[in-house]
Amino acid sequence: MPISPSSVAEVADGLRDAGYLAGGTTALVSYLATKLDKPVLVEGPAGVGKTELAKALARYLDRRLVRLQCYEGLDEAKALYEWNYRKQLLRIQTEAGAAGWQDVQDDIFGEEFLLPRPLMTAIASETPVVLLIDEIDKTDQEFEAMLLELLSDFQISIPELGLIEARTQPVVLLTSNNTRELTEALKRRCLYLWLDYPDLEHELEIVRLHSPELDEALARKLVEVVHQVRELDLKKPPSIAESIDWARALLLLGASDIDEVTFAETMSVIVKHRADLDTVAARVGVTLARPSDATRPAA
Amino acid sequence: MPPVPPRSALYGGLPEPGPGGFDGQLLAFAEDLRAEGMALGTSELLDAFAALDHVAWSERSAFKVALAATLAMSPEDRGLFELVFERFFFRAAEAEAARNEIDAHGALKGGEEIDLEALRQQIAAALRAGAEGMMGDLARLAIAAFGRGEGSGVVGVDVQRIRRALGLRTEPQPDLPGDDPRRDGLPREQLRRFESHLRRELERDAIERTRSLPPKRPLSDLDRALPTGPVQDLAAVHRVVAQLKRRLATQGHELRGRKRHAHVDVRRTMRASLQTGGVPIDLKYRPIRPRRPELFVLCDVSTSVTSASTFFLSVLHALHDSFRKLRSFVFIERISEVTELLERERDFRAASEAIGRDAGVADISGYTDYGRVWTEFLALIEDELHPRATVIVLGDARTNGRPPRDDVFALITAKAGRTFWLNPEPRLYWNYGDSVMAAYETHCTAFECWRTDQLEEFVKALTR
Q1: Is A291 helix (H, G, I), strand (E, B) or coil?
Q2: Which alpha helices (H) appear in A40-100, and where do they start and end?
Q3: Nearest chain A Cα to B246, which residue?
Q4: Model ipTM?
Q5: Is the pTM of this model over 0.80?
């Protein structure tokens, strides 16, 4: 049974149970989204958990997640619906001669011959869903304009069939990396959530949630180093996902401390560019302690 | 003799209470946001009211987040929203308090003895620990201890005086005893926050003394100005550049993918028609390639514009991939090519230092000499200019009284395909004093360029 939260704290707790530590803003905006039935536009740098938020919301609200990954050149046929030509042809052939033109025409433009694509699926679903429209900034403006009808009225017009209205109210999340300015019209229909890199304590909690076996002191050091790395001018600063990966890597290696050597060996987990590696090694690596022989795991 | 106006009127007095109640206040707040240039529609306001139905108003953060989520729809707007929110609700609360003659810190005005040294220690410790909640109270204490009586009346001056009196510094102070929290220097961010608390408390004091609100200060454009100068934080510069880069990378695509205009590629169409027995069913179109101009950039690096120009050069070099060829020159009295230097030096600060050291563009006086620069540039580059080349000049067009030689400049622009002029001064100041912008503007496209969005506009025009 899908859940309908009644307070912000409830949303925050629910998301935590679903494995997502939401900041105050995130929880509040998610709560508003379920209450106001408005889409949420989530923006922020790559890897701060925009997509993950949608997944966690789906888990918490006990709804199915319908995902539409956007890319350049995405059109209605792939996002909304398509007529199933083959099935229509078959239908015409089996009825050849027997039925009149009017019957066949009415027949082949029925819902039976419609291939629903993600947006249609989300609208037509019997049980409420969470609809994730990922990386909306990758599409062109025409597609954005097409979304407007769906986002404000939750309906789709199909010329041959008429209006299809939502049976249930989906929770809609749109994510964007802000590579281009979205249109005012789209923004106006949404709530806006800006996700940024979390502060130290918050990220520490996230890392602890995902790898609870990691020693607390080590986890704190890890997060501190990641924050230090983010301060530098890099091509791609490490995201939250990467700090979690790093925590797992350290666990696997059985490291007990992040010293100069461990860092040099594992920093490719959080830094992914050749030029960045040099910068990080020069600026962060040297600030770490040299390993003492006792703590060094046998290679 | 006309009656002397009451003192409060001199300071603007108290504003008329707006259309009463909560709705009225919120609408006034929206008006404030609009006045600062945010595009707010009625639908956003309706959303804001709807959202406020669902949150506790008594919680400041929840209230603010609900408003932000419905009103401020981009990172830039979010920054603006923060500033206006602080200003508006501070003023609204103070106006209300002054109207009802409530005194917030009457208790501290008795001149009680405060242990100054203990207070210093306490504040420094709170700053180190980052105890946000205590800062407001401590700021009030500090004002009570150091601020009264000798106040200069100018808030900014008083803030600095109190900070010095407290001995709060970011750099380490090794001559202090070992357990003093100020010994290793204080975190810059915390200190800045404490100063803003001080400022706020001092403003509140002033309002209570005069029973009137100071005139509303519009957000200075400085808050939105381009990050210039090595003093400002480099991260901001790189954020701007990174953003521009991504925009540029995607910009061409919008034009490329779709059939915006059709140039049929006859050869490929005929080739494809072989499949259908020579009937050209599938038309093949020529792909649209983004324009990759050849750039010649001329930057004034005299003291008046130096920070803007180094920033600008570093932006252009970050965007190097988008241009086929990019040559940069800096000038003051003479002109000097710095293309290689900027390619070698990726760091903004190092680059600007190297330019100051090596370029050798100042001759005698150190004042810009546009006439001489044009002549030298033309001699240097005349053969390379062609209709597909773009010339960009960054400068304030202040000739220091020397001949502008716009005839030579006209020669350059005639040879080049496009010429842009970026002026780091607001348009208001053009043609005042020794600025001869009008003479040059007739030969080129001029942009004012002192805010991030203006820079972005320019980059768009450039790659169009």
Answers
A1: coil
A2: 50-61, 76-79, 85-94
A3: A179
A4: 0.80
A5: no
